[in-house]
Amino acid sequence: MQEELQKLKQTAEIDFRKAQTLEELEALKVKFLGRNSFLAQFSKKIPSLEPSLRPQAGRLLNEAKSFITALWQERKEELSLQQNKIDLTFPSYSLRKAKLNPLTLVIREICSIFERIGFEIQEGREIEDEWHNFTALNIPLEHPSRDAFDTFYLKIPSKKYKYLLRSHTSPSQIRLMKKRKPPLAFVVPGRVYRPDNMDASHSFMFHQIEGFAVDKDINFSHLKGALVYFAQNLFSSEVKLRFRPHFFPFTEPSAEVDISCFICKGKGCSVCKKSGWLEILGCGMIHPRVLSSCGISPKRYQGFAFGMGVERIAMLKYRINDIRLFFENDLRFLGQFYEV
Amino acid sequence: MKFSFKFLEEFLNLKGITPRQLAEKLTLAGLEVSQIERKEGDFIFEVEVTSNRYDLLSIVGIAYEVSALFKKKIKLPKINLRTRPLLNLPLKIEDEGDCPLYTARLIKGVRVGPSPDWLKYRLTNLGINSVNNVVDITNYCMLKWGEPLHAFDFDKIGNIISVRRARKGERLLCIDNKERELRPEVLVIADENKPLALAGVIGGQDSEVSLTTKNILIEAAIFSPLTIRRGRRSLGIESESSYRFERGVNPLNLEKASASACELILKLAGGEFSGYKRAGKKPSAKSFWIKFDIQRLNNFLGTSIKEKQALQILKRLNFNLKEKPPIILVKPPSYRQDIKFFEDLAEEVARIWGYQNIKEALPPIKRSLKEEASFYKFKEKIKDKLVSLGFSEAITFSIISEKENISSYKPLFLENPLRKEENILRPEIFPGLLKVFQYNVYRKERELEFFEIAESFFKIEPGFKEKTKLVIGRHTQNMDNFYYFKAKLEVFLADCGIKEFSLKESSLPAFSNYALIEDWGWVGVLNKEVSRRLDLENVFIAEFDLEELYQKRKQPYFEEIVRFPWVERDISLAKRKELSFREIEDIIKTQAGKFLKEFRVVDIYKGEKIPSGFTGFTLRIFYQHKQRTLSSEEVDKIHFQLREALAQKEGLILR
Ligand SMILES: [Zn+2]
């Protein structure tokens, strides 16, 4: 009898394990613990046993019963856990996150880098007059940038200066210098316009960031420092800068700034046209005539200014090969960018 | 511009300097070498000359620069500047503004033929075709001195030379074999009858020097850079000559170029020098003495350059020095007309010293105590709020076509549009979003949510206005999504501190629905016909005056949260389509008064039981009192009164 019960326990264990659904398990429960089960039959037999054997038989029966019940309970928990499980590898619903235009991302990043070293962010207007866009910036009347080939003029009657769409963000420098007194330190992002035909690297509307600082002791080494800080924070701390003497009417001395090509690490590639350098911006010490035209004495104050094309920088940073992508607003394009 | 290593060696000993070293040093001193090319045993350098340095548009000018950079002595040829005998040819300058100086040299009896090889290579290496000895010599001297020259066949021109603007209808067959119709912005060299050449740009075929030419007239002149640029741009041509005139030529090199060309012609083509004539102002070069101050220089550059070193640099650049301690005065060489200020001196010292040798330091910026509020920051927050609501940011062009302008504002027109059809500045910015929708719909994306922040421009009397606007738009296949769009607008505005606003029905062409939002925005549904024309489906647009929203911004203040429970009651209604919900809302607000927490539409149906022309819906009213719990009898009473009031409303059916 003891052996029989032992065998029963083993069979129950094997059978419960075989059960794959709760329904199968329920059927087995009936088989092993139900009214017609071996155990039920067995318990009916007990009264017919010799009195001396009865307690022993009863004990064995109860033990087998609770053992099998426990097995059933365990398997039931296992199976119900299994049945509530889902396939985590099943494909998700497609969801699209709304995105900022990458130009906004780059403008934000650049402005916040300069903000960390003390610059304030301000903006200007897009319709400007010749005085603010050219004259105050020491750009002579015969300068080619004043031609209708290079600047959009507007049909707005005016007595003094012709109105135009600003061809750079520099007029904002003039307005801020006129409005506020030194010490000054601003970055000014915004849209600018030039009548260039659209192609992979030209657009008649694009973005610039102008920056400038004026005080009694702001010098060329500070210009270099600010721009190195900017480039290393925007691109990578590995990036090297090269300042090449250049010419702009509104700065003196002037420089063009190249960064070491981070694609080929200076070895030369198609992006840097095998030179190892990528031009990113123009800068210099503000020309004394520009300070004077804003009512700031060049004898007492000096300062630097820089200007950069946002699209160019965004194209380098994200390795975008066509400027037109910024203005098409294709979801497949916008979807690729995010703040790091 | 191009120059070659060998050409440079005519003036300098470059032994021990490799072309790479030369390129590197020139680049770091401001003459950017963009390319070096090997050609015919020579090295050709392509350089970008900045507009202030027209002295570098000549081999001699570059030689001066190289001599300063490498501390090399420059050797210049001696030239006999012959001006006798006087040439008997009237020279007339119509306007000295266009041409301040004109000179002519006559050589008689030349033998025109091919150039010697050395001369050919000088030109072809720098991209100029060899024509014949005379023409090649004028080009060679131009490259050398930076002063463009022109040679005429003296027997093909009339009795005078005049420099004047072209007359309407005049034409000229140029040496590139193209006949051009001239306009008054073009300056020409003419005789008494006809134009002979486009001044400073290109010669005419009739008077060009050919193999049969015997007598030649060499022109050397100064033309106004602006006149040359405007003239040649109007004709759409460019030449080595115009390139230099536009940037400026050194008047002091004019005679040298012309006289040395004569010398070389006499040598290589024979003939006899037969006369010189000049019209206009004698060349003069103004140079200023500038006070030099090493302390100021170091304070300006952030350097600690010694006075001696700085002065040495200036000497190498051929500056004159006048030392009267403690004052030092310096004067730039005559070919450096670009140097006028102390800051120009600083640049000269800095670039030869090397920008790379100036240390970097962060600027000591002092921020002011009072900072202006930043509209920029506000806009960036708006962008984040909208992105979090599911709208992506578009950036579209501010210049659009007059035809695309759907607006009650008068637009501003461009004087010189790039393309005729894109001729105005947009008075409202939403047409940009329509294009974005179209672009993406063509790429099979139909559920689209975008926004853009941009300037808008319009006419006012008198003058114009520029305003920053925000447009939010939705393209969808399902018209019912309008209420979802509206919900987002409400959430957005609430997030800007605007919890209540009124819609006032109005109209705008191209919109089937259009309502003003207070006086700072509008919302509309694009007309089906317009949508279809653009291959779009349902389009909802809202545009806001962002400057107004900026003015309205305010920080939030905590409001006590009502802790007493609320009670809900539903009412099923059907309203005639023409009845504005606004009127139902008014009834609810009046009847429920201070007991009203809020109401919502919980169901909309268009079943058979709803009479045609009606919309069925269920309203859920939430009743709540701020200071106590409402009893159900109380609520029943208010709710009954509300039902009664709604039942009496014309166009409304209680179901
Ligand atoms: Zn590279």
Which keywords apply here?
heterodimer, A: 340 residues, alpha+beta, BirA Bifunctional Protein, domain 2, 2 domains, seven-stranded mixed β-sheet, 9 strands, rod-shaped, B: 655 residues, Phenylalanyl-tRNA Synthetase, Chain B, domain 1, Phenylalanyl-tRNA Synthetase, Chain B, domain 3, five-stranded mixed β-sheet, 18 helices, 31 strands, 30% helix, binds zinc ion
Describe the structure.
The complex is a heterodimer of chains A (340) and B (655). Chain A is of the alpha+beta class. Helices cover 40% and strands 19% of the residues of chain A. Chain A folds into two domains: 2-84; 102-334, Bira Bifunctional Protein, Domain 2 (BirA Bifunctional Protein, domain 2, 2-Layer Sandwich), CATH 3.30.930.10. Chain A has twelve helices and nine strands. Chain A starts with a helix and ends in a 6-residue tail after the last helix. The mean pLDDT of chain A is 93. Chain B has five domains: 2-70, Phenylalanyl-tRNA Synthetase, Chain B, domain 1 (2-Layer Sandwich), CATH 3.30.56.10; 91-280, Phenylalanyl-trna Synthetase, Chain B, domain 3 (Phenylalanyl-tRNA Synthetase, Chain B, domain 3); 290-357, 2-Layer Sandwich (Phenylalanyl-tRNA Synthetase, Chain B, domain 1); 375-552, BirA Bifunctional Protein, domain 2 (2-Layer Sandwich); 567-654, Alpha-Beta Plaits (2-Layer Sandwich). The relative contact order of chain B is 0.07. The longest helix of chain B has 19 residues, at 251-269. Chain B has 655 residues and is of the alpha+beta class. A seven-stranded mixed beta sheet of chain B has the order 18-22-23-27-26-25-24, with helices on both faces. In chain B, helix 4 crosses helix 5. Chains A and B meet through helix 5, strand 1, strand 4, strand 5 and helix 8 of A and helix 6, helix 9, helix 11, helix 12 and strand 18 of B.
